[in-house]
Specification:
The protein is mainly alpha-helical. The chain is built from three helices and two strands, in the order αββαα. The chain has a two-stranded antiparallel sheet.
Length: about 80
C-alpha cells in the first residue's frame, strides 16, 4: 500500500537505505497532513453524535400571532 501511495504521489515517503526505515521530508509532510485529517474526522464524528443525541442543534417553535403576542411578547 505504501509503494502504491508513493507511486501515486511520485515521492518516496521512507528512506529505506539505512538499517532502520526513516521518513523522508515528503513522508513527514504526509504524516502531518494525515494526522490533521484523522483529527478532523474525529471532531466531525463527535459533533454528529451530539446532533443525533439531541445535545446540539436547534428547536423551532411556531406560535399563532394572537397568542404569541400576548404570552411571549417579552421573550
Amino acid at each position: 500500500m505504501v509503494r502504491l501511495l508513493e507511486q501515486e504521489l511520485d515521492a518516496e515517503l521512507f528512506d529505506r537505505s539505512a538499517k532502520q526505515i526513516e521518513l523522508t521530508d515528503a513522508g513527514r509532510t504526509i504524516l502531518r497532513s494525515s494526522l490533521q485529517i484523522i483529527h478532523a474526522m474525529d471532531n466531525m464524528t463527535m459533533e454528529l453524535q451530539d446532533v443525533f443525541k439531541l445535545e446540539r442543534g436547534s428547536i423551532r417553535l411556531g406560535l399563532p400571532p394572537m397568542i404569541g403576542g400576548k404570552f411571549f411578547a417579552t421573550i
